[in-house]
Design goal:
Length: 333
């Protein structure tokens, strides 16, 4: 323990007790490699692995994704540098609306009333697709604009490929999902969790499921935990891998085949942690419901159709804790 252990954190950061145990099951977290999809056998194998992962965990470590390691590392580097700036230099980007083009927030300012407790975190976000106005992006560090623009473009291209693979792994035409993603959106959120003197008393990000279609996350320090079989499982950073998880929209589109699973971020006493989460979704005007090809007599539609923009607004006005807005779309059985 470093010198931080002399300090106590303010009471508003104390989280509610959590009913779930921690389990060290990291070795069981699915790993999906998409490096050799041209070969028919490996393609089948990858699609099967993708389907199993989305059905059982809702999360997987993605290898062979094609995003150059150097670019990912640079993205991490500019993110750490940005968060190292003095508070007044970051606060100029302050926004209390995560649907803005660009913004910065500590969880003290953003929708404080929605949260059961303050979280040990600050974050910066920007739209990658369609791209935000570059003049709104940080000038410091100097490479921020270039690096975040390239990374955003690469991640968006990867998301489009994944969308095809998700389609195929559901037994649909490769283009089926993409056809429902008119006005696609990609937004990037840099999460910063400073070292905490009493890490077990607080939380970095409250348990939640992602409201978008799916998320592509980069991390270099552990802290991300996924609820699996009633226990929190830490997804340890795997060198070169990106963490991908199913969000609420993909759960709806797949008619519950794929699971949008609850996850959270815990903090540690030793070192700062940054995660870079890229959220891919349809446009706000897209109508999202179970894909007709996945609905039949044995498997009737589990959800009503809704506008993604309305779902996003409703979710953002709910307390960020536990149950997602998905239950409001459930068809009664
Ligand atoms: C998120 C998220 C987890 C992390 O930003 O939605 O779940 O590890 N982040 O920072
Ligand atoms: Ni999340």
């Amino acid at each position: 323990m470093g010198s931080l252990s002399f300090f106590k954190i303010p009471g508003e950061f104390h989280r509610a007790p959590d009913p779930h145990p921690w389990k060290d099951l990291d070795h069981e977290v699915p790993v999906v490699d998409i490096s050799s999809l041209e070969d028919t056998d490996s393609r089948e194998g990858a699609l099967q692995a993708l389907r199993d992962a989305c059905e059982s965990w809702g999360f997987f470590q993605l290898l062979g994704h094609g995003i150059p390691r150097e670019l990912s590392d640079k993205m991490m580097e500019v993110a750490y540098k940005f968060f190292d700036l003095p508070a007044q230099d970051k606060l100029v980007y302050c926004s209390d609306n995560v649907l803005d083009d660009v913004g910065f927030a500590t969880n003290f300012e953003v929708s404080k009333s929605r949260r059961p407790s303050a979280t040990w975190q600050e974050f910066f976000f920007q739209m990658c697709s369609p791209p935000c106005d570059p003049s709104k992006l940080p000038e410091n560090p100097a490479r921020y604009l270039n690096v975040s623009t390239s990374y955003g473009a690469e991640v968006t291209a990867l998301a489009r490929r994944l969308l095809e693979l998700f389609s195929e792994s559901l037994g649909l035409e490769a283009s089926e999902l993409a056809g429902r993603f008119e006005g696609e959106l990609m937004s990037m959120r840099l999460n910063h969790y400073p070292p905490c003197p009493e890490p077990q008393l607080t939380i970095g990000i409250q348990p939640h499921s992602d409201i978008n279609a799916f998320t592509i996350l980069q991390q270099d320090v552990e802290g991300l935990q996924v609820l699996h079989d009633g226990a929190w499982v830490t997804l340890k950073p795997l060198p070169g891998a990106l963490v991908v998880n199913v969000g609420d929209q993909l759960q709806v589109l797949s008619n519950d085949k794929f699971k949008s699973v609850e996850h959270r971020g815990v903090v540690n006493g030793e070192r700062a942690r940054v995660s870079i989460a890229c959220f891919y979704s349809p446009g706000l005007g897209a109508r999202i419901g179970p894909i007709p090809g996945l609905v039949n007599e044995e498997c009737p539609a589990k959800y009503k159709e809704s506008l993604y923009g309305e779902y996003a607004k409703a979710s953002l006005s709910m307390e960020l804790n536990r149950k997602s807005a998905l239950s409001t779309l459930k068809v009664d059985v």
